[in-house]
Amino acid sequence: MEQLDYATFLQQRNAFDQAVAGESEIAHFCSSSIWQVAASNHLHSRSAEENYLICRDDDHWLVLVEQEADHFFPLEAAWMFGQPLIGGNGESKLDFLFQVVREVQGRPTAIVIPGILREGELHRALEQRADSLGHYHEFEATDCMTVDLTNGVDSWLERRSKKFRKSMRQIKVPDGFEIKSVASESPENLFERILAIQRRTYKWREGTDIFQAGSYDGFYTELLTELHRRGDLRMLVGQVNGNDVAHIFGGVSGQVYRGFQMSYAEEFRSFGIGNALQLENMRRSEKEGITHYDLGMHSEYKERWADEREEYLGVFAVVVP
């Protein structure tokens, strides 16, 4: 087993992301270093002398940061989408966790592990070994709404209600409307285009837009920049007569597309340009081999689109050497 400082972890983040891509029971994109590092940099207060608990061996990773004395959290603790314990099955993950605490910490350590699929391997292993922990408590984490594109968009549409299919066939868009991919542009230009559209939405006018809150502009700028560097950024804009009126953007990790934000100018609310963008984005994802289309956290409208609501929980545990 090797203990890493944060700078070394950043140097090895590609290896970490490859391990994340090999998992079967996690929110892949939000467990990756792209999401985790951007959140750590912008959504949480970090001191210059941050204490990280980052360890790896041939098959496993554990990536945590101390927020209180001997209380370790994932790098992204705002929504707690991702899982910081990567590699192997549920039992081997717990064996690795105990090994890290025993050999690195040498004392009881409080750890928060979110992104655990309810009734999945790790959840079952934790419940079976809860008595060996100094403390064990489960809490609700953020669920994800997902679309199965394994057999394509047409197959997905067949699984929707008759009313939904009819609405997709009869999407109404403004005269002069077209959809363009702009992901190859610079991250700086793309973010300005996103903000220009956000400022025309009802959420912006109400003061509830996510880009008006805290450091989310920095978070999304870093996501855009890193995804652009890797060639994994996906962004479409809807235009009317060549002018931006809507956008949808997200990122790709392996065969998973993870959506971030989608918005349109309020004056086009009576049209279906949001549906048009989402459907076009799914068709383009299908063409590049995406099998798992992650719509993000649960909301009522997503229930009409999603095939599954993946339920995740978190665990607060005290691991005793």
Indicate the topology.
Elements: E1 2-4, H1 6-11, H2 13-21, H3 28-31, H4 33-42, E2 52-56, E3 61-68, E4 71-73, E5 85-86, H5 90-105, E6 109-117, H6 121-128, E7 135-140, E8 144-148, H7 152-158, H8 162-169, E9 177-181, H9 187-198, H10 202-206, H11 216-230, E10 233-240, E11 243-253, E12 256-264, H12 273-287, E13 292-297, E14 308-310, E15 312-319
Helix pairs in contact: 4-11, 5-6, 9-11
Estimated structural class: alpha+beta
Q: How far apart, in Å, are the first and last alpha carbons?
A: 16 Å
Can you summarize the main beta sheet? 8 strands, mixed
Report the strand count: 15
Radius of gyration: 21 Å
The fraction of residues in strands falls at 25-35%
Q: Helix proportion of residues, in percent? A: 25-40%
Separate helix tally: 12
Question: What is the N-to-C succession of helices and strands?
Answer: EHHHHEEEEHEHEEHHEHHHEEEHEEE
Mean pLDDT: 94
Low-confidence stretches: none
Morphology call: globular
Number of domains: 2
What's the short story on this structure?
By secondary structure, this protein is of the alpha+beta class.
How does this structure look, described?
The protein is α+β, with helices and mostly antiparallel strands and 321 residues long. It folds into two domains: 2-143 and 310-319; 150-290, Aminopeptidase, CATH 3.40.630.30. It is 36% helix and 28% strand. The protein contains twelve helices and 15 strands. It has helices at residues 6-11, 13-21, 28-31, 33-42, 90-105, 121-128, 152-158, 162-169, 187-198, 202-206, 216-230, 273-287; strands at residues 2-4, 52-56, 61-68, 71-73, 85-86, 109-117, 135-140, 144-148, 177-181, 233-240, 243-253, 256-264, 292-297, 308-310, 312-319. Strands 1, 2, 3, 4, 5, 6, 7 and 15 form an eight-stranded mixed β-sheet that branches. A hairpin with a 2-residue loop joins strand 10 and strand 11 (243-253). The two termini are 16 Å apart.
